[in-house]
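Board notes (copied after class):
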Amino acid sequence: MRSFSFILFLFLTYNYSFSQKIDSNQQKKWVDSLYNSMTFEEKVGQLFMVAAYSNKKEDHAQDLDKLIAKYKIGGLIFFQGGPVRQALLTNRFQAQSKIPMLIGNDAEWGFSMRLDSTVKYPWNMTLGAIQDNKLIEKMGAQMAKQSKRLGVHFTFGPVVDINTNPNNPIIGNRSFGEDKLNVTAKALAYMKGLQDNGIFATAKHFPGHGDTGTDSHHTLPVVPFDKQRLDSVELYPYKELIKNGLSSVMVAHLNVPSIESREGYPSSLSNKVVTDLLKNELQFDGLIFTDALNMKGASNFKQPGDIDLEAFLAGNDVLLFAENVPKAIDKFKEAFQANLFTEERLAYSVKKILKYKYQVGLNQYKPVEIKNLYEDLNAIEYEALNYQLYENAITVLKNESKLIPLKKLEREKIAYVKLGDGSNEMFLAKLKDYADVTEITAFNLDTALLDLTDFTKVIVGYHKPDGAWRKNELTFKEINWIDKISKEKETILAFFTKPYSLLKIPNFDHTEVVIQAYQNTDIAQTVTAEIIFGARVAKGKLPVTIKDNFEVNQGLPTQKLDRLGFTVPENVGMDSKKLAKIDSIATYAIKQKATPGMQILVARKGQIIYRKSFGFQKYDSIQKVKNTDIYDVASLTKVLATLPMVMKQYDKKRISLDTHLCQMLPLFENSNKADATLLDMLTHQARFQAWIPFYKNTLDSLKHPDSLYYRMAYSEEFPTKVANNLYLRKDYNTVMLKMIADSPLLDKKQYKYSDFSFIILKEYLERALDKKLDVLVEEQFYKHLGATTMTYNPLNKFESTRIAPTEEDTYFRYQTIQGYVHDMAAAMQGGVSGHAGLFSNSIDVAKMMQLYLQKGKYGDQEFFSEKTFNDFNKCYYCKDGNRRGVGFDKPQLGKEGPTCGCVSMTSFGHTGFTGTMAWADPEKEIVYVFLSNRTYPNAEPNKLSKLNIREQIQEIIYQSITE
């Protein structure tokens, strides 16, 4: 057994929070004054908390109007509906009530348990896996904030049932687990979060519903244990919570023979349970609720009216979900006249209820403010905590040979198989964000196994619709699929269901990895993918036992790799509302026809916090841009392909910044560029011309491709594909290099942006390493990063519909340029050049930029040393007015330049002619990626640049930083 001393330490100085804020004399005066002014019927009316629904018709509301006006009921418990509708009804009903009512919601995991359009926190079973109970306390505090905003005083949580029966049909996911210490620790944190922030906690279902086999909504469950067992297990959380200021308890409808000897007598109606045990033995003097009196566990025993009276006589204060208040009040009058209870007994409960009303400010009642209610109840801070909760809950139960996180992606061929009928879109999308993952959709097991033949790893996701009371049991077919796949392949099995779903599987002997994700939410799916690929570590511990396979509190930590993860801005010190202004700028850019569409990504501290696509591939508004679409990144090629390869050569000491061009390429030995150093070339001050329009020399008198240089079909003499049905003569790359070598130098050594350096360096790399540049970067970078869309000549891998077009070419190739590089010189090199030619989506660009931000490291690999990165990110000639790093662009030194002017001087990146930008800032740990096809259908005018769209977005990013 784990020590419980840490729990006592956490709550050693804790007092019931409301008492610290209340003037007890004023409270007593208010309570006594009200009580003394009430009739007998009004006093009895205070005992009832009646069910209310905001999704029902007007006649339901009118019935409640009558109850409130005539019978002066003390409270309402809201069930299904929506927050705004509930608030409107709350205001309506409170306005009619002589004494403001206590309002409750059954909101164990937040208002989404009953209301639409509200935050859904994880179920208690999921929370039971978390080791940092401060997160549970924070959740309780957020729930309190939401409750106050909606005019609610009770959320009827936490559930403190210890779920030792896996077949429990009603508690299950609603429990924190089977370990009484863990359940108690979680319940204390939950309670503290609520009560420190002015909302009453309600522990339920007393004396303990966790080891029952039936549902008290339909029958009377039996708790067959002796008093000693109850005292050591079921009652344990109550004793600890009561010590620490628990404000209320809900009594369940249970048959507990060891306490109540009358056969089949519900605990909620038992004096021995409510008064003798809860009040006297456990010394609880807070508010006592019955569970809903319409539940069959109680209503089968007595009729409406009789059952209410019986519950009151047993010692309960609040009669929940009373079905017939008028009849009940008549029964109370009869009982009082028959001396079945005294005025003192009635005053005990009613004054307690009034005292609780005073403590939540109902002595100065204010209606719920409707304006901004939805926004307030769905604040981004709540989603931020949800991420933290799942990040701390998801549990790795088995990790044979530390298979996860998956490391050598270049060696893997990964398949994904979905089981179950729940949603899996987010999981599959996130898996594909990390690696090339193929979904196997075969309906037949033999076919599926055949399809899996060539794969090295198989990820099996078991997805079921998210429902707290769903059984979500595996079928024989699903178990068979898991068994057969696990025997054939290294398998990662992820369960997006309650832990008890695993019970049907005899053993996991052949499964290398088992992950318990608990729920099938988007966040659970995201975090599970992150754990598989090492962007996040597993922290959770299993809150229940799974037969002989997995023990309670079992959970394996995993390794953290330096891969990008996902979260919300607030979790990395940024403001979502400010960041959302990016949307309006993107929309404005499209409206101004600066670009038909774009992808924008922002990451901070290794976490992607903003990733959106806007607009369409063309201005025809037919095909919307998706995050998976691919863009021609133009000059980003320089820093995403050529530069990293040069840095590797530098890191291996094969070249230095002082290496001369003639040493790298003999072609330039006798040229005017022979003595140009690598440093001068990469800082754009080697006196090179900006560019040469090579294509113009290959056009005929009509300015169309000349047959001397081009053919419409491939041949050995014309092998270089420039565009669709257009092939260039094989010697023309040499011609282009000679034109560069023969070109005159600029008069003065100063900064002049030029493509020549990177065209030359591509040639150097290919000759030095005896491979084409596209092959080199794929083998040495992209495969390792899982950058599956980053490629030259994307039509060799992807459908054209996935690639944004860049131009309607009316001057060279005379066709829509889609899937072929926009840059003419790069096109004449077969689409593979050092200065242009690369295509990618935003997340794969971000991976390369994050690699730079991490100074040469990504995943579990070091691609080049920190020293190499620092050498290349240095501004060597800033004093001379040249802002450039070695290959990287750097922030402007004056007013004009590539950035917003708000980035740090250590930041670096590049922009591209097609309307692209990639920028990273080590000081703020930010990566910013902007991809567009602003050149479609024509490159001019460059509205994107004139409107400073990229720079404005970057400025918003920096304005969004809060810490």
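Comment from the instructor: The longest strand covers residues 607-615. Residues 1-17 have pLDDT under 50 and may be disordered.
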